[in-house]
TrEMBL record:
<keyword id="KW-0472">Membrane</keyword>
<keyword id="KW-0813">Transport</keyword>
<keyword id="KW-0407">Ion channel</keyword>
<keyword id="KW-1133">Transmembrane helix</keyword>
<dbReference type="GO" id="GO:0015271">
    <property type="term" value="F:outward rectifier potassium channel activity"/>
</dbReference>
<protein>
    <submittedName>
        <fullName>Ion_trans_2 domain-containing protein</fullName>
    </submittedName>
</protein>
<dbReference type="GO" id="GO:0030322">
    <property type="term" value="P:stabilization of membrane potential"/>
</dbReference>
<keyword id="KW-0406">Ion transport</keyword>
<dbReference type="GO" id="GO:0022841">
    <property type="term" value="F:potassium ion leak channel activity"/>
</dbReference>
<keyword id="KW-0812">Transmembrane</keyword>
<feature type="domain" description="Potassium channel">
    <location>
        <begin position="106"/>
        <end position="181"/>
    </location>
</feature>
<dbReference type="Pfam" id="PF07885">
    <property type="entry name" value="Ion_trans_2"/>
</dbReference>
<dbReference type="InterPro" id="IPR013099">
    <property type="entry name" value="K_chnl_dom"/>
</dbReference>
<dbReference type="GO" id="GO:0005886">
    <property type="term" value="C:plasma membrane"/>
</dbReference>
<feature type="transmembrane region" description="Helical">
    <location>
        <begin position="126"/>
        <end position="146"/>
    </location>
</feature>
<feature type="transmembrane region" description="Helical">
    <location>
        <begin position="158"/>
        <end position="180"/>
    </location>
</feature>
<dbReference type="InterPro" id="IPR003280">
    <property type="entry name" value="2pore_dom_K_chnl"/>
</dbReference>
Amino acid sequence: MEFDEERSIACEMSNIFQRLKWIYQKFRLSYTLPFFILISYTLIGAAIFRKLELERDQRERETFRDSYNYAMDQVLRRMLELRCQDVVIRADEHLQMRYAREAIGWFIDYLNLTQVIKERNDSSPWSWYGSMFYAGQLYTTIGYGLPVAKTRAGQIASIFYIMLGIPVFLIILKEVGRLLSRALRKLYKRIRTAKSKLPTRQLTRIGMPVKALYTSAYSIATSVGSEHRKLAHVELDSELGANEQNALNKKL
């Protein structure tokens, strides 16, 4: 009984393997499977890094946003306390606020701090797109520097993710290189075949009128030759008739 059960299990496993093999060959998974693995690996990494980094990054951005707004309000209030020489501006508090804000904005822009403040005030880069972008930077070894893992857990996870991701990416590059090589060879063969056929077609097109011209010239020459032969026969017959007449006259 146990032997029969093991045999049935082995048969089922063999059938499953044959079906998987058929699916693998039918849908050409040898081409698409590596890309599917790479995309899945990127999504897994994005989920891990987003989970580890998103909360802290949002908290830091919220703290910076509050600090920036508080500092801006304090600077504006202290600037308003200064004595203004313009009577119109001094009488309108909203106008004073606008001019003071423009002055502070010019100061920040002059020190090239606008982009830094804008980046810190924007939403967190650890969205799904940003997390996938960070994961892609790791296994492609590009390293743009944005976003960056700041938590200890995220940094350790990045190390292990790179150790596994770089070999996977190299395998994918090998498959891509093989596909490109095959496509380029096919393209080269097609170009070479088309190039070899092109002169033959041109010669055929050129040879057709030449052949027709040769045929017409040959027919004309043949007809002219036949006319010449007819005239020669007529002249020969006339000469024979004249000779016979002379011989008859001599006899008489």
